[in-house]
Design goal:
Structural class: mainly alpha
Order of helices and strands: HHHHHHHHH
Strand content: under 5%
Shape: globular
Distance between the termini: 42 Å
Largest sheet: none
Number of strands: 0
Number of domains: 2
Amino acid sequence: MPTRRERVDHAVRAVRDFHAVGQRSLHAYPGRGPYGTRAAEAETLGTSGEYVRKARAFADPERGYTRADLAALCRAVRARFDAFTARGATFGTTHVIRLLAVPKAGGKRAQMEARLFAGGWSTDELEAAIRQRFGRRRQGGRPRRRVGDRPGLLAQADLVTRSWLRWFEQVGRPDVAGRKKTPLDVLPAPVRGAIRAAARALAAVRDVVGAELD
């Protein structure tokens, strides 16, 4: 079973690696970059285009996190790690993605971070707090559009796939550090297989829709 220090180091390394991917991508492709670059980067990294897209947002010094912001975030993870584990949670890149929806202006994101680390919130709790404070906004602050037009349907598809994949992330990982079984493992094998296949398909939908929304 991993020691506390190993688990803390793993959490911090995941956050730093996430930021580093974004930095490399922004350096190689400033601005939005040519169409299809995220997919090519993702294939090279063995990850998804969505991961690269969010990493770029994370590493954006204006809207995301500067090097100093990143260092402060990692210090907070180390200092408050036990607040998460005491509640059966852990800090990860999904927390970072949620925080990116909170504006930096006026110290709003810093205030939300302080509440997050004080409470050791899960990602669902963080998202609920963000919605309560800022309303039901899409990631990145885009408003939901009227259903029926092309942008509105794309926004809906993005929202629905993200919601389902967040659920899959919760049930598809061990609920306690050190355990190998996940909540999904209690289901019959055919059901598990179908859910995992659906997750792969919806992840592909999310990536394509995300590229169109960009």
